[in-house]
Amino acid sequence: MKNLLFLIPFMLLSCTQNIKTADDNQDETSTGSDPHSFANPKENVVTHLDLTLAVDFTKQQLNGLAVWTIKHVTKSDEIIFDTQGLTIEKVTLDTDTAEVFFALGDQVKILGQALSIPIKPETKKVNIYYSTSKNAKALQWLNAQQTAGKKQPFLLTQSEAILARSWIPTQDSPGIRFTYNATVTVPKDLMALMSAENPTNKNAEGKYHFEQKNAIPSYLMALAVGDITFKAIDKRTGVYAEPEMLDKVAYEFADMGKMVNAAEKIYGDYRWGRYDVLVLPPSFPFGGMENPMLTFATPTVIAGDRSLVSLVAHELAHSWSGNLVTNATWNDFWLNEGFTVYFERRIIETLYGKEEAKMQEVLGYHSLMENIKELGNKNPDTRLKVDFTGRDPDDGVSDIAYEKGYFFLKTIENAVGREKFDAFLKDYFNRHAFKSIDNDTFLDELNVLLIKGDDKVKKQIDSYAWVYQPGLPKEFIAPLSPVFSKIDTLVQNLLTTKNTLGLSKVLKSTNEKLYFINKLPDNLDPELMVSLDTEFNFTNSTNAEVQCAWYVMAIKTKYAVAYPAMRKFLVTVGRRKFLMPLYKEMIKTPEGKKLAQDIYKTARPNYHSVAYNSLDGLLK
Length: 620
Ligand code: BES
Ligand code: ZN
Hints:
Bound molecules: ligand BES, zinc ion
Number of strands: 20
Radius of gyration: 24 Å
Largest sheet: 6 strands, mixed
Helix content: 25-40%
Distance between the termini: 50 Å
Number of helices: 20
Shape: globular
Number of domains: 4
Structural class: alpha+beta
């Protein structure tokens, strides 16, 4: 009920845009109760960062000075930061050169160490001199061999969910926002990029300046350093990649500008200035990461035929859902990802039509069903509102937040109609712009602003079942795609006739191939695997999604012909989404486990900590 009262002021104001100032960044409703942060934002909170970094490839170390501008919320004489594996050399306050006493707390599993700094009532800035450790979790240091060009090393960061603290001492909670400026020094032949206004050319000194004028949470802090070049797509969009990849990337992502325009038409202005994408070496652990102004992306979406560009739509959509309106804690993660998948499919529908969006929805649905089956449909982790207290939020990345979140929003759209839902969402993005939001606040707003006491609509939506109950609500109706329904028949025929001839002329698109492979039964006749491979050459596909789906089938049916190609894939690609299903499938049998361990020995050095931390346990 108390939440409803606080809704009243913005119901009156409805649709006025929030104007953010550095001092007005914090959302009082949600900060200070994050189970994954030591910070004390209810007492003292950061508002701006001036970061100076020197990137040392030889030592694989960042040497930094983080100057934090702070805001005193209470009279507390202490500010607490999150750190993980950082060496704190010294701390000073404002312009005073005298070092102040600071305390590093005990090492806590997953969370790292609290850094407590005593401050005075007049303290405005806290200066932290530090360096990173050799195995800083966010950082991936690649040697030249691991890049496309094979000549220069590469550094990339991945801060979401709680890894920013391993390269910056920061109040590392998604409910705490700050603006930043940075100066980064790198070896002369390399370029540095951040989640900020970026250079498009290298400079002779190897010194780069960055500015992020919008207040962002620390999981969106990002840095990449390498032999990177730029190509514009249109006035406000462009791509960055190693020179060997640049033209291919620009071809693949030619629709980026159109995507931004489409997104703006649906939910209002793009508020970040430029939108660029950086394509990284293949060991990047995710498909994409929505670093503001500069999405980080895996090269495994560069299929050559633009068939995997929904990843760009997804990361772009985060410029509203996530980067503008942010999950308050990692227990509200579905608010970031579920909204983003919904928005992503709206962008895809605008650019490529309803059938394309529908196919992606159905693929998402099947993936969700598999995921629920794996977790068990009574498992509390299959609720949208999860509790990851005491656990690593990175382990909470599953289809639940993404696809169950998507289907919940789709259910709301169906119940109230797209027009009303769009108006609500546009308003939601404006109302909460540059703020964070938790699950209950969203549900309150949904009730007050959209359901408005209409019992029929309330029942149709059934928020409670979606958010607080495991599995899927029993009224839920599975989505259908006419194109895919035809493939169901085709697979049935194939199983009786065993005839694969001409199939590749029928199943042309990546979506169709993926659906088809996923529909094949686990115990498929190994001879059919041979003839399918003759027909499609799936083993040597250049589409990473197809490769992954096919190699899973190869393991299930012991189709060893595909193993060398699979090994090569697992040794070069570090995208966790592909690694997990392949290794998990292999370890189901003793021979498979041996193969998995053997591949892993060679592959592990190419993986980011996010990937090997998920795999080490499986492959011991
Ligand atoms: N923000 C996520 C990646 C992420 C989530 C990193 C949680 C760390 C913790 C990103 O937007 C994402 O969802 N990536 C997907 C893209 C896909 C859904 C199009 C991925 O990496 O596969
Ligand atoms: Zn996402």
